[in-house]
Design brief:
Elements (H helix, E strand, L loop, with lengths): L2 E7 L2 E7 L3 E5 L6 H23 L8 H9 L7 E9 L2 E2 L2 H6 L9 E4 L7 E2 L2 E2 L11 H17 L15 H12 L3 E5 L6 E6 L2 E4 L5 H16 L13 E5 L7 H17 L2 E6 L2 H15 L4 H7 L6 H10 L4 E5 L7 E2 L20 H19 L1
Parallel strand pairs: 3-13, 3-14, 6-12, 12-13
Antiparallel strand pairs: 1-2, 1-4, 4-5, 7-8, 9-10, 10-11, 14-15
Length: 380
């Protein structure tokens, strides 16, 4: 999939997305960013989605509207209307016809980490697909089930989940320890009949419900990154080609966000196409810096400086490779045409979204107000 065009789907009036190696969607809540990312998954993995629903006894009776209700979530069937349309690589897609027929089951190409990922851990353990209501969003249910399978198949040796020598490079582990975990280890508590994830420090354990908000948000995201990066030596997981992450910044301190953004760059250099939705100026500023540094033929060290990361050989090599990747940024504004704002610079005087989709308007207003007040005081 090189491009995706959506017309009259939910709050999206018209969106023509040309994907880069890294594609970022910005805009206010309920403007269609999540819907667009779920279409990326749907259009590439429909057969696998239909198969998983069938395995768990979910029958939408070959009705596209019932399917949309099951896939996007309860109440979401109305996003598809008589004038709705989808195009992939400039070719129309008869999605209603495809949904009515059982598609060939192929290995999944897209791994989607949803914004509601914290729901995947009930009392500190990944929930199975069937633990949710039938009309809960498919993305949440499938993600939760993937984490459950990850725990059952790859983390049954009793060792800590974090830090873990065969997952993530030591540079990333050190940064996550400093910004999120401190002296705690992430472990599986085996003392109870029901397994649970706990934070452990010198024999004391903290259950999921007393973790910080940032730790509760980070752990299911970290497990998703473990899924995408099976080890430091294996670049990609089986057939997966796309990593889609919604609102990676939720609950995290800016230092932790910078570390996660380093891991996003790692995904790029491993060969994944990465799509993000965000409400964070920090994410957007990284994309701006990436494009500016790439055009200036900068070195990886310059990119590491943007993220406040150490100049180790491993990170410099990764950053050098990341600077060869291309980015795209789109501004979603509910009910209006989605706008490509990739080339807008910080402080641009362009009349079209000079504050990058609303993410920088508070800083803009604060700077203007302070400058005006200071000037008035100095002139009085």
């Amino acid at each position: 999939m090189r491009s995706l065009a959506l017309e009259n789907i939910g709050p999206i009036r018209s969106a023509d997305l040309q994907f880069g190696d890294l594609t970022v969607l910005v805009g206010p809540q309920a403007s269609g960013k999540s819907i667009a990312l779920q279409w990326v998954k749907l259009l590439q993995d429909l057969g696998a989605i239909q198969d998983l629903l069938h395995v768990h006894g979910i029958d939408y009776d070959k009705d596209p509207y019932k399917f949309f209700e099951v896939y996007f979530g309860e109440g979401m069937a109305s996003i598809w209307r008589s004038k709705s349309s989808v195009r992939v690589d400039d070719r129309g897609v008869d999605i209603e016809r495809l949904i009515k027929r059982k598609q060939k089951v192929r290995p999944e190409r897209v791994f989607l980490i949803p914004a509601q990922r914290v729901m995947a851990l009930a009392n500190g353990w990944p929930r199975p697909f069937t633990d949710y209501a039938p009309r809960d969003p498919y993305s949440v249910r499938a993600y939760s089930d993937a984490l459950r399978r990850l725990m059952d198949r790859e983390f049954d040796d009793g060792g800590p989940l974090f830090p873990r020598l065969n997952r993530l490079k030591s540079d990333y582990r050190d940064l996550l320890k400093a910004s999120v975990f401190s002296e705690f280890e992430l472990k599986v508590d085996q003392e109870f009949i029901q397994k649970r994830l706990v934070l452990s420090k010198r024999g004391a354990t903290l259950p999921y419900m007393v973790w910080s908000a940032g730790q509760r948000e980070l752990v299911p995201l970290l497990l998703g990154l473990y899924w995408l990066m099976p080890s430091a030596k294996i670049s990609m997981r089986r057939s997966l080609e796309w990593a889609v992450i919604e609102e990676l910044e939720m609950g995290l301190h800016p230092h932790a966000i910078s570390t996660i953004l380093l891991l996003v760059l790692e995904l790029l250099t491993r060969g994944y196409k990465v799509c993000l939705s965000t409400h964070s100026p920090q994410v957007l500023e990284l994309v701006w810096a990436l494009e500016a540094l790439r055009k200036a033929k900068a070195k990886g060290g310059d990119l590491l400086d943007v993220l406040g990361a150490p100049h180790t050989q491993s990170l410099r090599t990764m950053a050098d490779r990341a600077l060869r990747k291309k980015s795209k940024v789109y501004f979603f504004e509910g009910g209006k045409r989605v706008t490509d704002i990739t080339d807008l610079a910080l402080g641009s005087d362009s009349p079209m979204h000079p504050i990058w989709g609303g993410l920088l308007d508070f800083s803009e207003r604060a700077n203007t107000a302070v400058a005006r007040a200071t000037t008035s005081f100095e002139n009085s």
